[in-house]
């Protein structure tokens, strides 16, 4: 008894921890003000799709970084060779077949090769003693490339510094809590809550702001370069940098006291001021050009020495442009060029609507599930419903504790979690019903029922967890949030169903058996249970050929639909831009005329939802596809938005999604990879837990379910996006979950009576789990239907296909998995093999009989 009490104490402690973690999300302000700030501030943060805001994914131009660094090393090396009087010709930069930048030059004397290698090691020496340059010399041709280990470290350092520069720039603009994080190996993710128009921020983040000072070429100059200004004037400048912009400590955009024109004033640090004073004193009468990101901003003639480290940059600035330039100079130059490859913007009104519909559909689904459980199992269903409510509270607590972000797909994940969490409770209650019908007293029936259900619950939930973990590994943004929610929900539901519910049920059963003579078995009675009991005895294998033929035919038709008309891919996979807007003053024709007058002939317009609500789709610009960048596409979208604003100043851009070809191509590859790995991972797990023909039957059925669901997407024209991929992976987990329950019962029955005909065993297993299969499907549908009905456009690519998947997955469990298992099992019998491998106990018993 003491052990049970200790266990109960631990369970209660876990529940209290979860409730305490979740509480700050719902506590009123009047209560929060009396509690510590560290506690009340630990609330669940909302995703941009719920609170509105902008999400930008910035890709680093690694080629530019590596080329610049290699050219710098090459310049130093060639300068060193000249000092040592080593002759060379044909200095040029190019790319090799692997698209790696390299510098090539030819030595006049092959005997100088050793000297070149030593000089290269010297000019590119690293702190660890290694060299950043790799030198390849064939005959007289010298090829310089960067060492692979050095490029990795260079990129890592550049991205780390870029994150800090981006964060400083955003903080300077006064944004509230912008999030700047590294994503992958070559990208930076920027999230800005509450910002519905990120055009100004995009110009800040897309500008490197690398400022350098160069003298105009004269007779003393070495290598030169040509640069132009905004008016097209060309300047022949020294390639050598006279002063780096990194010496700037402060800058401001102001109106000039002399001309009244916007200028940028700057101040240098002490080292920069000293260097600037000396260089201007030694070069009076020369032109000093200030170059910002490769363009000449101003090129004044130095008439006298400039001490004090203060200067002024004049140009064709507007005051906002001068202020932005000053901001970028203050925060420092980006060490690596960044381009926007993905943009997602949600207006605050759309975000609040998403919260409302998400909460309404979630509450409606949860209430339907709880009512249904009570209707089936009475007070035992009430216990399960109480455990489900605690399960949801624990999930919220865990999400808050781990600092997760709740997105709209995350709400969908919570709803699906509730629907799937019911499965464990139904499985347990059905097992307890079976044991009670055998005449077991309440405590014994509960103990045995939980013991028999435990392995099945673990197997079915673990297979689902495999699919969910892949979503987390390969997903992006909201899809990853969905995966986290489902994953935490699975762990929490197993705990509440197996541990907490058992403890509560046993307490009630012990109270009922206080009198030792009162050992009356538990009685479950409801119209639904009575109806399910009448369904017992169905021969699911009788029409196996017909069922399998229909399933294969539907799969073939689905494949045909996939080929033509095909899937309606979203911008996640095709690339391009999708804009949702509300224009009170423009009709569809007027909006189309505005767009065409602005030169955007490829944009399609669709009236969407309510009146004056439109959906615009723009493909990726042709030059963007060729260059693999989205800068031109981003500029075109800004021009389009400006043109619409001029026609209707009351227009509201509710949502903007822009995905470049590089990102969309990555999404496609990762989605296919995730589906393949999910199938392989589940097959491997099932092969470990079950025999090969069990695992094969389950996996083949899931493949049939998957193809039909893809055909459903093609038939209905629902947008196939990342949320749809989440639905497919959720389907795999849910469908396998369903099949594992039946397979587990078949295995149990085969161990009890191996001599029984396989068809009878399979039919008995399907019938004995029929009520669980039907009830689980119904509860999942009850959880999903409100979300599919009024959950909103953001989750329709998930909710509607999942409703279809539940129906198709349930029917395949009953008819297709059983048929495939029978066919594979019969073939196994013909080969003279047993249906099950012997257990460790059976092997031990057989060995004991050997003399």
From TrEMBL:
- Tell me where in this chain the SSD domain is found: 694-823
Q: Which domain of life is it from?
A: Bacteria
Keyword Glycoprotein in record: no
Pfam families noted in UniProt: Sec_GG, SecD_1st, SecD_SecF_C, SecDF_P1_head
User: What is the membrane topology noted in the UniProt record heading this document?
Assistant: Multi-pass membrane protein
* Residues that span the membrane, as ranges: 358-377, 481-505, 546-563, 670-688, 695-714, 720-737, 774-792, 798-824
- Please provide the record's keywords in A-Z order: Cell inner membrane, Cell membrane, Membrane, Protein transport, Translocation, Transmembrane, Transmembrane helix, Transport
Question: Where is the protein situated, by its record's location annotation?
Answer: Cell membrane
Query: Which NCBIfam families is this protein grouped with?
Result: 2A0604s01 (TIGR00916), PRK13024.1-3 (NF009583), secD (TIGR01129), transloc_SecF (TIGR00966)
The record, for PANTHER family, names: PROTEIN TRANSLOCASE SUBUNIT SECD, PROTEIN-EXPORT MEMBRANE PROTEIN SEC
- Family note: Belongs to the SecD/SecF family. SecD subfamily. Belongs to the SecD/SecF family. SecF subfamily.
Cited function: Part of the Sec protein translocase complex. Interacts with the SecYEG preprotein conducting channel. SecDF uses the proton motive force (PMF) to complete protein translocation after the ATP-dependent function of SecA.
Describe, as the record does, how this protein assembles with itself and its partners: Forms a complex with SecD. Part of the essential Sec protein translocation apparatus which comprises SecA, SecYEG and auxiliary proteins SecDF-YajC and YidC. Forms a complex with SecF. Part of the essential Sec protein translocation apparatus which comprises SecA, SecYEG and auxiliary proteins SecDF-YajC and YidC.
Identify this protein by name.
Answer: Multifunctional fusion protein
């Amino acid at each position: 008894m003491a052990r049970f009490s200790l266990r109960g104490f631990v369970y209660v402690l876990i529940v209290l921890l979860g409730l305490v973690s979740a509480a700050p999300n719902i506590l009123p302000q009047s209560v929060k003000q009396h509690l510590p700030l560290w506690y009340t501030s630990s609330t669940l943060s909302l995703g941009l799709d719920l609170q509105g805001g902008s999400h930008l994914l910035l890709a680093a131009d690694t080629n530019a970084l590596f080329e610049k660094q290699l050219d710098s090393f090459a310049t130093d090396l060639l300068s060193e060779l000249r000092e040592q009087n080593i002759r060379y010709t044909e200095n040029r930069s190019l790319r090799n077949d692997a698209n790696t930048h390299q510098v090539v030059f030819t030595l006049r004397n092959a005997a100088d090769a050793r000297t070149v290698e030593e000089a290269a090691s010297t000019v590119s020496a690293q702190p660890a003693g290694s060299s950043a340059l790799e030198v390849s010399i064939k005959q007289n041709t010298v090829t310089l490339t960067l060492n692979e280990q050095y490029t990795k470290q260079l990129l890592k350092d550049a991205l780390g510094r870029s994150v800090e520069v981006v964060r400083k720039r955003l903080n300077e603009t006064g944004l509230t809590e912008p999030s700047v994080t590294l994503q992958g190996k070559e990208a930076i993710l920027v999230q800005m809550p509450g910002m519905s128009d990120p055009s100004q921020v995009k110009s800040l983040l897309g500008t490197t702001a690398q400022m350098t000072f160069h003298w105009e070429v004269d007779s003393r100059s070495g290598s030169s370069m040509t640069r132009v200004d905004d008016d097209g004037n060309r300047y022949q400048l020294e390639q050598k940098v006279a002063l780096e912009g990194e010496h700037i400590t402060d800058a401001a955009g102001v109106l000039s006291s002399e001309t009244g024109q916007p200028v940028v004033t700057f101040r240098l640090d002490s080292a920069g001021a000293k260097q600037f004073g000396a260089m201007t004193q030694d070069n009076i009468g020369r032109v000093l050009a200030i170059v910002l990101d490769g363009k000449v901003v101003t090129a004044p003639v130095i008439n006298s020495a400039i001490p004090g480290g203060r200067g002024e940059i004049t140009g064709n600035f507007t005051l906002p442009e001068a202020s932005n330039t000053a901001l970028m100079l203050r925060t420092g130059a980006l060490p690596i060029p960044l381009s926007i490859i993905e943009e997602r913007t949600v207006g605050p009104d759309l975000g609040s609507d998403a919260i409302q519909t998400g909460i309404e559909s979630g509450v409606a689904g949860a209430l339907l599930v709880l009512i249904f459980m009570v209707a089936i199992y009475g007070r035992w269903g009430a216990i399960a419903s109480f455990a489900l409510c605690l399960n949801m509270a624990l999930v919220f607590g865990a999400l808050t504790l781990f600092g997760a972000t709740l997105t709209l797909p995350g709400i969908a994940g919570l709803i699906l979690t509730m629907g799937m969490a019911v499965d464990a409770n139904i499985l347990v209650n059905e097992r307890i019903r079976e044991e009670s019908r055998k005449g077991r007293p309440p405590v014994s029936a509960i103990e045995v029922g939980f013991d028999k259900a435990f392995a099945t619950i673990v197997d079915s939930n673990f297979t689902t967890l495999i699919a969910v973990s892949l979503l987390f590994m390969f997903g992006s943004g909201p899809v990853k949030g969905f995966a986290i929610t489902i994953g935490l929900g699975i762990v929490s539901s197993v705990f509440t169903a197996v541990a907490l519910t058992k403890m509560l049920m046993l307490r009630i059963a012990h109270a009922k058996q206080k009198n030792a003579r009162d050992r009356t078995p538990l009685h479950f009675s409801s119209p639904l249970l009575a109806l399910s009991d009448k369904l017992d005895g169905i021969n699911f294998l009788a029409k196996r050929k017909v069922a399998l033929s229909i399933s294969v035919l539907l799969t073939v038709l689905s494949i045909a639909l996939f080929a033509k008309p095909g899937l309606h891919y979203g911008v996640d996979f095709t690339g391009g831009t999708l804009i949702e807007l509300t224009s009170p003053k423009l009709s569809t024709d007027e909006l189309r005329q505005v767009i065409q007058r602005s030169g955007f002939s490829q944009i399609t317009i669709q009236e969407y939802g309510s009146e004056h609500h439109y959906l615009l789709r723009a493909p990726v610009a042709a030059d963007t596809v060729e260059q693999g960048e989205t800068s031109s596409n981003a500029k075109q979208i800004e021009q389009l938005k400006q043109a619409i604003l001029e026609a209707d100043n009351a227009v509201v851009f509710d949502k903007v999604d822009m995905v470049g070809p590089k990102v969309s191509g990555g999404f496609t590859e990762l989605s296919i990879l995730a589906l393949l790995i999910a199938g392989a991972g589940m097959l491997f797990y099932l092969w470990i837990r079950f025999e090969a023909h069990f695992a094969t039957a389950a996996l083949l059925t899931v493949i049939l379910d998957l193809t039909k669901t893809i055909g459903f997407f093609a038939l209905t024209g629902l947008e196939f996006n990342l949320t749809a991929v989440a639905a497919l992976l959720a389907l795999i987990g849910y469908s396998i979950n369903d099949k594992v329950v039946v397979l587990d019962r078949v295995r149990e029955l085969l161990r009890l009576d191996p001599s029984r005909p396989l068809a009878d065993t399979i039919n008995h297993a399907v019938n004995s789990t029929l009520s669980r299969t039907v009830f689980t499907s119904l509860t999942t549908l009850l959880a999903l239907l409100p979300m599919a009905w009024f959950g909103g456009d953001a989750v329709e690519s998930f909710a509607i296909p999942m409703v279809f998947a539940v129906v198709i997955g349930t029917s395949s469990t009953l008819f297709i998995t059983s048929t495939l298992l029978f066919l594979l099992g019969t073939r196994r019998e013909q080969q003279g093999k047993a249906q099950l491998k012997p257990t460790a106990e059976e092997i031990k018993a057989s060995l004991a009989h050997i003399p």
